[in-house]
Amino acid sequence: MSTIYDVARAAGVSPKTVSRVLNGDAHVRAETVEAVRAAIDALDYVPSSAARAMRSNKSGLIGLITGAISLSPTRRDMTGLPDLFIVQGIQRAIEKSGKTLLIADTGGSMDRVPDLIRTFEEHRVEGLIYVADYHREVSLPPVSSGTKLVLANCYDAAGTAAVLPNDYQGQKRLVRDLVARGHRRIAYLSLAGALDATRLRTQGYRDALGEAGIAVDAELIIPADIDTADAASEEQLLFDAIDRVLSLPRPPTALCFGNDRMAMRAYGILRSRGLDLPEDISVAGYDNYTLITESLYPTLTSVDLPYNAIGIRATQLLLSMIAGKAEAPDAPILVSGPVKHGNSVRELPASIHRLSSIGRTNT
């Protein structure tokens, strides 16, 4: 295997000049560069990244820790593969950076994370990205002072740099859209109540109604999912939640679901009651998991969870921190997604004002 000294002899220059050509860190005459490049090609010389890292104290490596690769084959959820989509966004952002991405999988166990961080630091990565499978708080071991760390789709109590989906804004935007289409009675059948996403989306739902001057009816807000892989319980909770809101004296004209999987199941439940979608009732999901939204009839209106953008933003932030162009932000960076309109939401006609002995009423 050829060395830098072989290249120097073949080009008639010093090893230091060859190093300057390889690193581009000093001016070298064009004819000298040409001679060095010709010698490199002739000798099939491959520069040592390890040696370069020792000289520059920069490895050019970025470590990524995720559970996306080892997803259990028994995993039932059909909300998409958020961590995998985030990883794809990270890969896209890394491509033109000149850095090399190293990916390690947790195997579904958080206990492996400390060892993976240690291994990456032993390989002198310049930065780390940790990707969670859903919006949540995590607790990671500290990294060394020379290693930059960014969290994607998660946050921690230490205030580590993080990039999160803007769940509050997403639900608020969806409810605003439904109100603009004439809906005043809008139910929210959410994911498990303990989730950060549920808390934030519920507040977005409430605030959108408040902005429109619509009183929040607590009977229209029901957790309809649980944070376990229990299919029977999920189906029973969803059926019960739909039954409860449709049995109200003033039932809703639109149903918002915590994710597209719930909305997909709701199609069957609603049709079993003889309801036509969206003529009798409108339905909206969350995630914009296109395998569901585009295959349902009618196609499902949903909020886009911008997983690719989260990965890209996290990578851009990390690279800026490594380059010394940015400090870790004081608060998580929030990434929003648009409402993706399907045909599952009906636009209601404007209210008709009627006068009666008790005054004006709306129908």
Name of the CATH homologous superfamily of the largest domain:
Response regulator
Main sheet specs: 6 strands, parallel
Content of β-strand: 15-25%
Shape: elongated
End-to-end distance: 84 Å
CATH architecture of the largest domain, please? 3-Layer(aba) Sandwich
User: What is the C-level CATH assignment of the largest domain?
Assistant: Alpha Beta
Structural class based on helices, strands and sheet pairing? alpha/beta
- Helical content stands at 25-40%
Strand order of the largest sheet: 2-1-3-4-5-11
| Number of H/I helices | 12
Q: Runs with pLDDT <50, length 5+?
A: 72-78, 352-360
Rg, Å, rounded? 27 Å
Q: How is the CATH topology of the largest domain named? A: Rossmann fold
Q: Report the order of strands and helices.
A: HHHHEHEHEEEHEHEHEHEHEHEEEE
Instruction: Domain count, please report it.
Output: 3
What's this entry about, in short?
The chain has 363 residues and is α/β, with parallel strands linked by helices. The protein has helices at 4-11, 15-23, 30-43, 49-56, 82-95, 113-122, 167-180, 196-211, 231-246, 260-272, 290-293, 307-322; strands at residues 61-66, 100-105, 127-137, 148-155, 162-165, 186-190, 221-223, 254-257, 282-284, 302-303, 333-335, 339-340, 353-356, 359-362.
